Amino acid sequence: MLVAIVAGAFLAVIGALGTGELPLIYRLAYWVGLSVAGSVLGTLVSAGVDRLWPSLATSTWRRSVVIVLALTPPIAVLVWIAGGRHPLTPRVVTAYLGFTLVLSTAMMALMTLAARRLIETHAAPPEAPPPRFLERLPPRLRGSEIYAVEAEDHYLRLHTSKGQDLILLRLSDAVAELEGIEGAQTHRSWWVAKAAVQDAKRGDGRATLTLTNGVEAPVSRAYARTLREAGWY
User: What's the chain's average pLDDT?
Assistant: First the structure.
C-alpha cells in the first residue's frame, strides 16, 4: 500500500496523462486514489492467479508478468472512468492501455523488490558451523554433549554425556576449537561448559564446580574472579 501511495504522489507531481493543469491537491486525490484502488485490485488479481496457477509461485518474475497482463485492462478502465470517460477511439484505448501497462509493470516491479527485501531482512540468519572440536571426538562419543576437557600430560580427557575418553591434543588448541560452545577455562588444566555446571562450592579462597556427570572441576585463583563476574557461581 505504501508503494501505491508513493507512486500516486509521484504521478500527481509530474501531472501524468495531462493532469498537470489541475491544482496539486486534486491531482494528489486523483492519482493516489487510483493507485490505492489499483493496489487493492492487484491484491485480488494476485490471489486469483495464485489460486488458478499455483505452479507460478516457483518463478517470481513469470508470476509478475501474468499478474500485470491480467491487471492492465481493469486498471485501464478505472483510469478511463476517473479521467472523464473520453470517447473510446482506437487512439484513446491504445493510450490508456499503454500507460496502464507501464504503470502496472513499474508498480509490480517495485512491490516485488520490496517484498523480496522484506523477506531477506527477516530471514533467519544462517546457522553457525559446529565447533571444530566436535570433529575430534572418538566415534563412540560422537553426538554427545561436552561437559569438560581436562589436560592429562600430553592428552586431554573428555568428559561427555556418553562417558569419557582420551585424545592427543594440547588444551590451548582445544579451547580455540571449542569456540561456539558457551564455556571457559577454569584452571590451567580444565575447560568447562557452562551448561554442565550443576553446583559450585567455595572454600579456602578456591572454588570447585560440580558437573552434570558428578565430576568436580577446580577453579584456580587466576580464573575465579572472571568466572564469578560472569555469573558462574
Answer: 82
SS (H, E, C) the chain: CHHHHHHHHHHHHHCHHHCCCCCHHHHHHHHHHHHHHHHHHHHHHHHHHHHHCHHHHHCHHHHHHHHHHHHHHHHHHHHHHHCCCCCCCHHHHHHHHHHHHHHHHHHHHHHHHHHHHHHHHHCCCCCCCCCHHHHHCCHHHCCCCEEEEEEECCEEEEEECCEEEEEECCHHHHHHHCCCCCEEEEECCEEEEHHHEEEEEEECCEEEEEECCCCEEEECHHHHHHHHHCCCC
Q: Could you list the residue range(s) of the whole structural domain that residue 185 is in?
A: 136-229
Domain of 189: which CATH number? Answer: 2.40.50.1020
pLDDT in tens, 61-103: 777 788 788 878 887 787 777 666 677 778 877 877 887 787 7
pTM for the predicted model, two decimal places? 0.49
Task: Identify whether 130 is part of a domain.
Answer: no
Write the pLDDT tens digit of every residue in 101-118: 877 787 777 666 766 665
Q: Do 100 and 23 sit in the same domain of this protein?
A: yes
